[in-house]
Amino acid sequence: MKTNEQFKNLFDFATKELSQDGFLRWFFENYKNSQIGPIVVDFINYFSKGQHEKRQAFNLKFNDITQLISHAQVNNIDVSIDFWCEKLFKGHRTIVIEDKTASHEHSNQLEHYNNCISKWKYDNNLTPTKCVYKIFYKTHEIDSEELRRVASAKWTAFGIEEIYSFFIKYKNKTDSDVLNNYIDYINRIHTCYQEVSKEICSKWNPINWETFFNKRIKPKYSNIDYKFECFRGIYNSMILTMDLNNTNYLKCAALEIQIKDKLIPCLHPLFNVGNKWDWSINVFKDDDRFDECNKELTDLREFVEKQNSFLKRGNTARAFASIDEMIELNCKTDKLEKLIDRWASEMIRLITLYNNKERK
Fold first, then answer.
1. C-alpha to C-alpha distances, 149 to 77, 106, 117, 136, 186, nearest whole angstrom
2. I need a labelling partner for 334 at 20 to 30 A (CA). Which of 21, 79, 208, 350 fits?
């Protein structure tokens, strides 16, 4: 039955990394399809030119691939693709994809995967560095620290800009609803990164928030550390971090703005004891340096307490100060920016004074 009714986009509901893993495997496995196959070949050619090591950049044509097999979670790597091109090379080549949506590369996982890949066995006596093409595929922006880790591990980073640039060429060029849905989904993500939303912030999605922080908040505080992150998939937050001077273990003070049903400010200490970093002083209770940590935190708290400020002394294990207010999400960008600026400017003022004060 024919209908003109517009269907909703599949990927508005299949938003998790496992769903994207499934799409990527479906995409590659259609390498023989007359419409999708040429796009698969173009994609392989596209990313192979960006590899860090001097590996063969492919110049495949449709039907050059004689066999292709996709795998999920080989050594916990999200997607692996083995493919053969009998006319062009002996044996097979492998594509490995670490797939992310909003989460970050963590705990040196790419280096761990490199160790696993180095132990793989290959046909025709080919070495792993000649066979494996490694992609860090993320449908959000990749921040500078994450990009550094990806490059250090010698993986090729494909963030939203590269993914969009590739797929947008094929918008509505096939009869595949799945592929067209994915391209539309990527297009909308990319658009959200281009400009700050004009809607009231209660209607914003996480990318709207990230774009707001990148374009309206970060440039004002470019002299301090900044990041936007998702905490364990529960909530998003913006974090502004300042170094603390003349302290041994209490290294930083941070303003974290949690995005929940309201904007919630949290003012954290950040400790480094040995090789361990943590926001909470309680983590170091069994360490013989705990008393010194506590002394440094108490000194910072007492300094805040003596200032004429709406920042109050913090008294929990994860707070050096507190703010007894929140921001409702029924406002637009300009008002939101002013309210956040009030919090950030005051933390910067106090920490600057603290860093400049004479120690006894």
1. 17, 9, 18, 11, 24
2. 350
